[in-house]
Design brief:
Length: 182
């Protein structure tokens, strides 16, 4: 047997099919022999037997053959499991990984798009809220604008005020002073 052939799909399939068929045949033979031995031993008395001794003896011997039959049936199933595991864990693994990576990238792009849409929506709501005048409920003191309390000789005026006080703004960037690129 070429060991390198076991590492191909056809080679492993042929090996497992051969092993499986052999174990199935063995299991059938063990079952037939167990039935023959049990029936023969039940009919063969040994001197000094009591009334159930033949059946008990036949059952004990046939039980070992039935255990062999069960082991061969399980070995045949394990041969099929070997092939299925090889296909699942070795042959199909690169394809599954590629599909999983594509799904992962798709989810990541979807999350990035959702975050971008949420940020854009938040900024649009902020711009809209800053551009619309606030209505005062009746009987309250109107809110004073900060620019009304700034005196020309105020030392705080050495820093520029945020742009946009004179005209309606279209983006959130109009409310913040432009930096020197830092």
């Amino acid at each position: 047997m070429d060991i390198n052939a076991l590492f191909t799909d056809d080679g492993l399939r042929a090996f497992t099919a051969t092993v499986r068929d052999q174990h199935v045949r063995d299991a059938q033979q063990y079952g037939q022999i167990a039935d023959i031995v049990r029936s023969r031993l039940q009919q063969t008395p040994i001197e000094g037997d009591r009334w159930m001794a033949k059946r008990l003896r036949a059952w004990k011997v046939a039980r070992q053959l039935k255990a062999m039959q069960k082991a061969s049936t399980e070995a045949a199933a394990k041969a099929e499991a070997l092939y299925a595991t090889y296909v699942n864990e070795v042959l199909e693994l690169p394809q599954r990984r590629a599909v999983a990576e594509a799904k992962r990238l798709e989810r990541k792009q979807g999350r990035q798009a959702a975050v971008g849409a949420a940020v854009a929506g938040s900024l649009n709501r902020t711009v809209t809220a800053l551009n619309t005048p606030q209505e005062q409920p009746g009987g309250t003191v109107p809110q004073a604008r900060l620019a009304e309390f700034v005196a020309p000789d105020n030392p705080w005026q050495q820093w520029p005020m945020a742009a946009g006080g004179e005209r309606p703004t279209s983006t959130i960037n109009d409310y913040f002073a432009k930096g020197d690129g830092k």
